[in-house]
Design a protein that fits this description.
Elements (H helix, E strand, L loop, with lengths): L2 H13 L2 H8 L3 H15 L4 E4 L2 E4 L1 H26 L6 E7 L1 H7 L1 H10 L3 E7 L2 H10 L4 E4 L8 E9 L1 E5 L8 H6 L1 E5 L4 H12 L8 E6 L2 H9 L5 E4 H10 L3 E3 L6 E8 L6 H14 L1
Length: about 290
């Protein structure tokens, strides 16, 4: 098997569609279908169920997906190590960040990094905290930046910033107590989101079970949650970075819950090769935090 076959297989598995994978990977649909078919024919094992126009992993396919990702991660790591011998004159840096960080906190730092090292191409992926940690663990990304706590012994993590959290709604609510928390309609992020896990942890420390909240909507992005609250669908806890303009414009109001700041963390694998580009970015972040 080839790395290109593995790359196409992983792309198809993640999108559950061969044509969409081909478009994302910039190969023809016939080449993508042929790569998957060649893997299945060589080993006599079906990797996908064909369901209508889509595909679904078989049991063998699910097991193979984890191994394929690991192989691609190691190949990327080997390529990075060789390129690193050129120093900071050229190369690439793969990073992953959770949504709040990628959209509001990280861009200015990446712009400053580009000014210092214009020949280093930065590839940024966006995932929730859980997914970002998984990418660093697998080697798909060398550095991660997340809001939530990550409990993974293989990953080193350190504080790189703080983020005020606020409860917002369309209208003022007066006093916010436990009865109000139960009665409110909540717009929340998906499970695995650092924003959601931080809010739920705060509730637990105050003796309130998050399961008592009435969740009206679960949405996949901060912007979707903010827009739903602006439309009057409910209330939400979000980063002040996300709602600052809406608060200033009067589209949202801050409600008195008194939430603590949460920490932003950087992640890297303890045992993988540390590139000069990654060290340069982490040093720049430390300079700006200090």
């Amino acid at each position: 098997m080839t790395l290109e076959q593995l790359r196409i297989f992983v792309g198809a598995a993640e999108r559950e569609h061969v044509t969409k994978a081909a478009e994302a990977l910039n190969v023809t649909q016939s080449a993508a279908s042929g790569a998957v078919a060649a893997l299945e024919a060589r080993y006599g094992v079906p990797l996908f169920h064909r369901v209508g126009r889509g595909i679904q992993l078989t049991e063998a396919g699910r097991g193979f997906l984890e191994e394929a990702r690991a192989v691609l991660g190691r190949a990327a790591h080997a390529e990075t190590m060789l390129a690193d011998y050129a120093g900071l004159a050229r190369g690439s840096l793969r990073i992953v960040a959770s949504q709040t960080i990628a959209s509001y906190w990280l861009p200015a730092k990446l712009a400053a990094f580009h000014e210092r090292h214009p020949q280093i191409a930065v590839e940024l992926a966006i995932d929730n905290t859980e997914g970002a940690a998984a990418q660093v663990l697998s080697g798909a990304a060398e550095l991660g930046f997340v809001e939530g706590e990550v409990d993974e012994p293989a990953l080193a993590h350190w504080n790189v910033g703080h983020d005020p959290m606020v409860l917002v709604g369309r209208e003022d609510a007066g006093r916010v107590d436990e009865d109000w928390l139960r009665a409110a309609r909540w717009i929340v992020r998906e499970q695995g989101s650092g924003t959601r896990s931080t809010f739920e942890d705060v509730l637990r420390t105050r003796g309130f079970d998050p399961a008592q909240l009435t969740v009206a909507m679960t949405l996949p992005s901060n912007e979707a949650v903010r827009t739903a609250v602006e439309a009057g669908a409910g209330v939400a806890v979000l980063s002040r970075l996300v709602v600052a303009r809406a608060l200033k414009a009067g589209d949202l109001v801050e409600l008195p819950l008194g939430l603590p700041d949460r920490a932003f963390h950087a992640l890297r694998h303890k045992e993988r090769y540390r590139t000069r580009a990654a060290d340069a970015l982490t040093n720049l972040v430390k300079e700006q935090v200090a």
